[in-house]
């Protein structure tokens, strides 16, 4: 069960202070967010401190992991554990998005038709069952998002980034470093472009379409779903960048490159979520 | 209905240990005493009777299953113990019995499902009511509005009537402690009454056990349920969804009366409504306003802002010395009319008449230390509405 | 509950540097050892149990007689909320994660958890969450007073304490997800050669399914409270009809998490009992295969029954009927488990040490709770009982007499393995008998209160409920005080006592009983040989 070049036993790390540092960072972040949301003093400082500590912790912890990996301390069994865990982690992310997709489904299929039904007419007279809507008490008109502008371009961008990352993977497996690096650079650029367009779209929505987070349940679901997706793209791009830097440093071999694969899986997951969004948020 | 006797009141005052012991005895001796009530309240609608019977059936079924299973366990515990020298048998699988105890419970469940389904279908059938009443939950009172029938148009609030002193143990508790209101819902006997529920602030739940009625009052939605009481009497329930600090203090009281009494009651309500309608153009004097405002305040505002105007900070602000109250009257009127979304401060514009709002605002601006000496006229309230 | 570390080196072929650890508090803060982390989980859980229990005593004191005596209604609601959140997320769940940490690597012959460092983080996320929850009592406006179900719009009205609760839930969720990924990966990937999934001890099976339930349901809860947060502060209208949302939507999302959550609590409890009953019956567990299928079935069905908590919210008749039938279905696999335990005892050679007593207590009382659950599943009947003390009685039977008793059973069962000493059997038995008697005094009368119509979540009640409430409060205080016995028992066993053999229970089977007691700091650095006859505990 052991790989020639790796440890014979299952790797158990030595004691580490990074976890508790991470917990402290989260406590700071939570405190900061609570103070900020309630407009109490010093929230910003806590948030900043939390981010700083979290960043230090992430560098420290992942630096450690990379060191262990490059130090050949992970055998194949450890590698399998990583794969299992990444798969379960992505599953948990899927369920997180499921909550928001579920909410969208619920309002469109159940609550809006219900609010517009004859039984509720006594409360919300004149409210029609239509989508998009900002709800029966909405005052201002707004323009909903159209699928065939920026969103369609973004779909193409993400789909091609899925292709480039796969191409990079082929390069890695075939030991073509050049291809690996070019592929990763392309993927990162596509990701950044996506984010740029997304920001542009948000600004348009706020300034020209009167479509805000507060625009009833359409605005709520639109911004929360695309916002969390955008956040995940940001994470993905960051992770891809780290992988790119590691690739430049000569990390990974054709056989052993779990970190690369994990990030690629994650990137595909983000991609698939976008397809779902494109269909149910923008298109239908 | 659970009855309550003096004997029980005496029981309550017994010391801890003794009462505990009596409690155990009470459990053993069963429902000898009405307050040690062991079962559902006595049903007074056909639906409630069905539920009652269904519950009895279920209880019998689960008791039988329980006794059956634990008879076997008890046998093992007695005869298969090591201290009796019993040697362990060696078996650990038997497909036949395993199938049997998968299938038999499934069959029992299917059998139960039939009465359970029909009782439910009947409960949800709100069609063809004789009378429809809209029930609105507020923090913390009920609003009743008769939509159809002779009483159509009758509309009032129903608030807990138990005096504060009883709750704070400063006065002996009355017979219907916490289950009494100033104005109960009045309905005729033997008529199918459809109840529409909704709420303005948070979710409440309108519930009367004797009718087997319990329906959430969800803000922004109407839900419905129904009952047909076949016995005159007063039936009591409580709000059954946590709705904030006074959730335990918003009882539901329904008075079921004969057709004649109902007709008399309706006539009385109509007359009162006619005479109580305020002349919107009347110009009020300060002392008249304050007298009326004090009443409105006690009924609508005191539960949060307290009678002494001190509120319960930081959640419920003090009105005594409040910047808004002492500030321009427009701001004061606005918060009372429109409320403040996301807080417990409700939009009273929909609940109170122009005159009442004028009175309560004037009262607040003159009560306690806020001696502003201002008069507010209903016309000003009217002008402020919708702004 | 701690492995003495001198024993850790005995017979330990020196390998990497990881047998060393810093001394003092640093050991506990930085540890990557599953036993250390398991002990921390267990201690944390017990402390939280006392905190949550103290809150329940405040509740029971206020309910001792009608009228408002000790606390204001607002504070009562806060105690109610925190009692439930702390008991569920702080006491019961961490207790079983503690067992999982201690026992799963030993049961499957693994050197440690799959991700020992992340394991440490899973634990150390709990204290910040506990701090947020408990400190929220002292901020302006106090803690969330919404009940543990956090229903909007009430939760939108709450003050800053609500935000603290939301972030605490987020952090607890992270902890649970990481912990579960760790446990699931350990079970799937670190079993000793020869131990196939169907030869794995049942406790591992229950955790495999529980881990799955956690990974699937905690993110849903995170989504729900995130929407709550944005509704509170950023003007979204997920739960506000005026904007096209629906307060009931929150309930759907919450219970889509909440119902699996109750089996997250119940399944590991089933696992523990499935080890204890065979050990003290001196027989193999009856029906291992059907047990596994039952666990999987319960796990699966639990995702499809959530709206049985929402029968009175006005969901359509068809919805009520569907959820009623689906809920009834769960009784079948649960029944299979009960019958298998009963048959395991049948013609065994029974003895009644404390772990067995608690397992039997579990069996009797959990069945009562399960059967009342079935009564609640009938929509028509639930409309009478929803939000009454009947429900409170139901879930305390399954969670206190179910999960907590099972946790005690496991504690007494494995204490000799952890400490190397036998515990004080007399005190253990006393603990059991006091617990079971007072538990029933406290919670059985609540069935009657509920039937008679006493609503839950009220600080004051009308007079016809007075008598049973006195009984219930007396029972609760008795039960609470009896729990302090466990502290004494554990302290004694940690300090000393009769030496425990590697297999202190003659009927116990499994790899964990092949290593010395106390278990060495590092148990199986190399995968042990697996004897199939040892399988199925
Ligand atoms: C460990 C936790 C746990 C467990 C295991 C269960 C198990 C079950 N629960 Fe419970 N439940 C809770 C924790 C739990 N519950 C909590 C916390 C709440 C309240 C939440 C809140 O509102 O705050 C709740 C509330 C609750 C409700 C909502 C009540 C209401 O608010 O109105 C319902 C309704 O259907 C219900 C049903 C069931 C059923 C059918 C089971 C079944 O799984 C039980 C199955 C077991 C058996 C049936 C016994 C053994 C079987 C046999 C011996 C076989 C033969 C039996 C037959 C053929 C009948 N539960
Ligand atoms: C697993 C979870 C769990 C556990 C273990 C418990 C344990 C207990 N619970 Fe809890 N309970 C819930 C989960 C749990 N509960 C939930 C989910 C709710 C619903 C909340 C809601 O409606 O939102 C609830 C609600 C609830 C209510 C209903 C309140 C209401 O609706 O108004 C009551 C009332 O009797 C109660 C009582 C108790 C008691 C007496 C115990 C006892 O078993 C506790 C015994 C333990 C102790 C008492 C600790 C011992 C410690 C000491 C003796 C030291 C004391 C120290 C000092 C005083 C300094 N609980
Ligand atoms: Cu209204 Cu509870
Ligand atoms: Cu449930």
Automatic annotation (TrEMBL), chain A:
GO terms for cellular component: plasma membrane. PROSITE patterns: COX3. It is a multi-pass membrane protein. Pfam families: COX3 (PF00510). The chain crosses the membrane at residues 20-40, 46-66, 87-107, 148-168, 180-200, 220-245, 265-283. It is an enzyme of class 7 (translocase). The keyword Phosphoprotein does not apply. SUPFAM superfamilies: Cytochrome c oxidase subunit III-like. One of its GO terms (molecular function) is cytochrome-c oxidase activity. CDD domains: Cyt_c_Oxidase_III. It comes from the Bacteria. It is found in: Cell membrane; Membrane. The keyword Zinc does not apply. GO terms for biological process: aerobic electron transport chain. Its EC number is 7.1.1.9. Keywords: Membrane, Oxidoreductase, Translocase, Transmembrane, Transmembrane helix. Residues 6-284 form the Heme-copper oxidase subunit III family profile domain. Belongs to the cytochrome c oxidase subunit 3 family. This is cytochrome-c oxidase. It comes from Candidatus Accumulibacter phosphatis. The gene is ctaE.
Automatic annotation (TrEMBL), chain B:
Residues 128-268 form the Cytochrome oxidase subunit II copper A binding domain. Its EC number is 7.1.1.9. Keywords: Copper, Electron transport, Heme, Iron, Membrane, Metal-binding, Oxidoreductase, Respiratory chain, Signal, Translocase, Transmembrane, Transmembrane helix, Transport. One of its GO terms (biological process) is ATP synthesis coupled electron transport. It is found in: Cell membrane; Membrane. The keyword Heme applies. Residues 288-368 form the Cytochrome c domain. It is a multi-pass membrane protein. It catalyses: 4 Fe(II)-[cytochrome c] + O2 + 8 H(+)(in) = 4 Fe(III)-[cytochrome c] + 2 H2O + 4 H(+)(out). GO terms for cellular component: plasma membrane. PROSITE patterns: COX2, COX2_CUA, COX2_TM, CYTC. This is Cytochrome c oxidase subunit 2. It comes from Candidatus Accumulibacter phosphatis. The gene is ctaC.
Automatic annotation (TrEMBL), chain C:
It catalyses: 4 Fe(II)-[cytochrome c] + O2 + 8 H(+)(in) = 4 Fe(III)-[cytochrome c] + 2 H2O + 4 H(+)(out). InterPro entries: Cyt_c_oxase-like_su1_dom (IPR023616), Cyt_c_oxase-like_su1_sf (IPR036927), Cyt_C_Oxase_1 (IPR000883), Cyt_c_Oxase_su1_BS (IPR023615), Cyt_c_oxase_su1_dom (IPR033944), Cyt_c_oxidase_su1_bac (IPR014241). The keyword Cell membrane applies. Keywords: Cell membrane, Copper, Electron transport, Heme, Iron, Membrane, Metal-binding, Oxidoreductase, Respiratory chain, Translocase, Transmembrane, Transmembrane helix, Transport. It is an enzyme of class 7 (translocase). It is found in: Cell membrane; Membrane. One of its GO terms (cellular component) is respiratory chain complex IV. Its EC number is 7.1.1.9. GO terms for biological process: electron transport coupled proton transport; oxidative phosphorylation; respiratory electron transport chain. It is a multi-pass membrane protein. The keyword Zinc-finger does not apply. GO terms for molecular function: cytochrome-c oxidase activity; heme binding; metal ion binding; oxidoreductase activity. The chain crosses the membrane at residues 40-59, 79-102, 123-144, 164-190, 202-229, 249-273, 285-307, 322-343, 355-381, 393-415, 427-448, 468-494. Pathway: Energy metabolism; oxidative phosphorylation. Residues 28-531 form the Cytochrome oxidase subunit I profile domain. It holds the Pfam family COX1. Cytochrome c oxidase is the component of the respiratory chain that catalyzes the reduction of oxygen to water. Subunits 1-3 form the functional core of the enzyme complex. CO I is the catalytic subunit of the enzyme. Electrons originating in cytochrome c are transferred via the copper A center of subunit 2 and heme A of subunit 1 to the bimetallic center formed by heme A3 and copper B. Belongs to the heme-copper respiratory oxidase family. PANTHER family: CYTOCHROME C OXIDASE SUBUNIT 1 (PTHR10422:SF18). This is Cytochrome c oxidase subunit 1. The lineage of its organism: Bacteria, Pseudomonadati, Pseudomonadota, Betaproteobacteria, Candidatus Accumulibacter.
């Amino acid at each position: 069960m052991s790989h020639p070049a790796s440890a014979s036993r299952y790797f158990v790390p030595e004691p580490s202070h990074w976890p508790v540092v991470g917990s402290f960072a989260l406590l700071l972040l939570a405190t900061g967010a609570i103070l900020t949301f309630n407009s109490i003093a010093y929230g910003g400082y806590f948030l900043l401190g939390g981010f700083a500590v979290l960043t230090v912790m992430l560098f420290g912890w992942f630096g450690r992991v990379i060191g262990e990996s490059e130090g050949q301390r992970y055998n194949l069994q450890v590698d399998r554990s990583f794969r299992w865990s990444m798969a379960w982690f992505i599953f948990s992310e899927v369920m997180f998005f499921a909550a928001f997709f579920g909410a969208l489904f619920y309002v469109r299929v159940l609550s809006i038709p219900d609010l517009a039904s004859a039984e509720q007419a006594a409360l919300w007279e004149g409210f029609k069952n239509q989508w998009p809507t900002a709800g029966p008490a909405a005052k201002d008109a707004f323009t909903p998002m159209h699928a065939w502008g920026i969103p369609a371009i973004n779909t193409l961008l993400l789909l091609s980034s899925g292709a480039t990352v796969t191409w990079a993977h082929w390069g890695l497996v075939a030991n073509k470093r050049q291809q690996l690096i070019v592929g990763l650079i392309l993927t990162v650029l596509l990701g950044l472009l996506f984010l740029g367009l997304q920001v542009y779209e948000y600004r348009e929505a706020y300034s020209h379409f009167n479509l805000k987070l507060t625009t009833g349940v359409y605005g709520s679901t639109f911004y929360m779903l695309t916002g969390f997706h955008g956040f995940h793209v940001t994470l993905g791009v960051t992770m891809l960048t780290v992988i790119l830097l590691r690739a430049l440093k000569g990390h990974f071999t054709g056989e052993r490159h779990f970190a690369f694969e994990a990030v690629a899986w994650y990137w595909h997951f983000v991609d698939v979520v976008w397809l779902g969004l494109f269909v149910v948020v923008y298109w239908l | 209905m659970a009855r309550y006797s003096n004997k029980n009141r005496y029981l309550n005052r017994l010391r801890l240990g003794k009462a505990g012991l009596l409690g155990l005895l009470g459990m053993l001796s069963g429902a000898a005493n009405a307050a040690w009530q062991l079962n559902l309240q006595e049903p007074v609608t056909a639906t409630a009777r069905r539920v009652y019977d269904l519950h009895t059936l279920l209880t019998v079924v689960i008791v039988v299953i329980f006794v059956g299973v634990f008879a076997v366990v008890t046998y093992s515990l007695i005869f298969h113990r090591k201290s009796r020298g019993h040697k362990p048998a060696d078996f650990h699988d038997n497909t036949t019995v395993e199938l049997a105890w998968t299938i038999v419970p499934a069959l029992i469940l299917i059998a139960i499902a039939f009465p359970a389904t029909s009782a439910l279908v009947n409960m949800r059938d709100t069609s063809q009511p004789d009378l429809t009443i809209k029930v609105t939950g507020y923090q913390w009172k009920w609003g009743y509005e008769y939509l159809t029938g002779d009483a159509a148009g009758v509309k009032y609030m129903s608030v807990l009537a138990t005096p504060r002193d009883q709750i704070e143990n400063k006065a002996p508790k009355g017979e219907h402690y916490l289950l009494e209101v100033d104005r109960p819902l009045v309905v005729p006997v033997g008529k199918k009454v459809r109840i529409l529920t909704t709420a303005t602030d948070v979710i409440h739940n309108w519930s009367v056990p004797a009718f087997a009625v319990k329906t959430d009052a969800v803000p922004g939605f109407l839900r419905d349920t129904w009952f047909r009481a076949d016995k005159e009497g007063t039936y009591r329930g409580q709000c059954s969804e946590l709705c904030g600090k006074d959730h335990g203090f918003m009882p539901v009281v329904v008075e079921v009366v004969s057709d004649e009494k109902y007709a008399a009651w309706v006539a009385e309500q109509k007359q009162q409504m006619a005479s109580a309608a305020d002349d919107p153009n009347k110009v009020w004097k300060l002392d008249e306003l304050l007298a009326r405002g004090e009443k409105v305040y006690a009924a609508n505002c005191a539960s949060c802002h307290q009678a002494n105007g001190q509120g319960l900070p930081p959640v419920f602000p003090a009105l005594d010395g409040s910047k808004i109250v002492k500030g321009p009257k427009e701001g004061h009127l606005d918060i009372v009319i429109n409320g403040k979304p996301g807080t417990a401060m409700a939009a009273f514009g929909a609940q109170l008449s122009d005159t009442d709002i004028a009175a309560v605002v004037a009262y607040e601006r003159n009560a306690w230390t806020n001696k502003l000496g201002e008069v507010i006229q209903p016309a000003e309230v009217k002008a402020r509405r919708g702004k | 509950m701690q492995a003495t570390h001198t024993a850790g080196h005995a017979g330990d072929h020196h390998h990497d540097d990881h047998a060393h650890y810093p001394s003092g508090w640093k050991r506990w803060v930085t540890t990557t050892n599953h036993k250390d982390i398991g002990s921390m989980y267990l201690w944390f859980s017990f402390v939280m149990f006392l905190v949550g229990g103290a809150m329940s005593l405040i509740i029971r004191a206020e309910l001792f007689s009608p009228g408002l005596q000790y606390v204001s209604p607002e504070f009562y609601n806060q105690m109610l909320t925190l009692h439930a959140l702390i008991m569920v997320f702080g006491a019961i769940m961490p207790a079983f994660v503690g067992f999982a940490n201690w026992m799963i690597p030993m049961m499957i012959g693994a050197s440690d958890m799959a991700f020992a460092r992340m394991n440490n983080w899973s634990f150390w996320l709990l204290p910040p969450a506990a701090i947020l929850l408990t400190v929220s009592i002292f901020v302006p406006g106090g803690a969330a007073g919404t009940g543990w179900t956090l229903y909007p719009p009430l939760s939108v009205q709450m003050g800053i304490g609500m935000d603290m609760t939301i972030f605490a839930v987020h952090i607890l969720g992270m902890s649970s997800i990481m912990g579960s990924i760790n446990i699931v990966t350990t079970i799937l990937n670190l079993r000793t050669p020869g131990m196939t999934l169907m030869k794995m001890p049942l406790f591992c099976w229950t955790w495999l399914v529980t881990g799955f339930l956690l990974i699937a349901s905690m993110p849903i809860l995170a989504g729900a409270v995130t929407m709550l947060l944005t509704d509170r502060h950023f003007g979204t209208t997920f739960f506000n009809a005026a904007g096209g949302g629906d307060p009931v939507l929150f309930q759907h999302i919450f219970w889509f998490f909440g119902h699996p959550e109750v089996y997250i609590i119940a399944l590991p409890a089933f696992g523990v009992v499935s080890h204890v009953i065979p050990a003290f019956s001196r027989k193999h567990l009856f029906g291992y295969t059907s047990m596994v299928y039952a666990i999987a079935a319960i796990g699966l069905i639990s995702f499809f029954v959530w709206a049985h908590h929402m029968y009175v919210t006005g969901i359509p008749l068809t919805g009520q009927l569907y959820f009623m039938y689906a809920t009834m279905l769960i009784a079948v696999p649960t029944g299979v488990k009960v019958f298998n335990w009963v048959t395991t005892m049948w013609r065994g050679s029974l003895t009644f040490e404390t772990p067995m007593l608690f397992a039997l207590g579990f069996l009797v009382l959990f069945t009562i709770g399960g059967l009342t659950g079935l009564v609640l599943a009938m929509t028509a009947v639930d409309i009478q009982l929803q939000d009454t003390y009947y429900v409170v009685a139901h879930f305390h039977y399954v969670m206190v007499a179910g999960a907590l008793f099972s946790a005690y059973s496991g504690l007494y069962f494995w204490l000799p393995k952890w400490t190397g000493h036998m515990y004080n059997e007399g005190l253990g038995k006393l603990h059991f008998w006091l617990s079971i008697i007072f538990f029933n005094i406290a919670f059985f009368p609540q069935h009657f209160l509920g039937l008679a119509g006493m609503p839950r979540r009220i600080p004051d009640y009308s007079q016809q409920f007075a008598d049973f409430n006195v009984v219930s409060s007396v029972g609760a205080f008795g039960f609470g005080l009896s729990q302090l016995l466990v502290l004494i028992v554990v302290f004694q066993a940690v300090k000393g006592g009769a030496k425990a053999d590697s297999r202190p229970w003659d009927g116990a089977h499994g790899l964990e009983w092949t290593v010395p007691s106390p278990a060495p700091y590092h148990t199986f650095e190399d995968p042990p040989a697996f004897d199939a006859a040892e399988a199925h505990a």
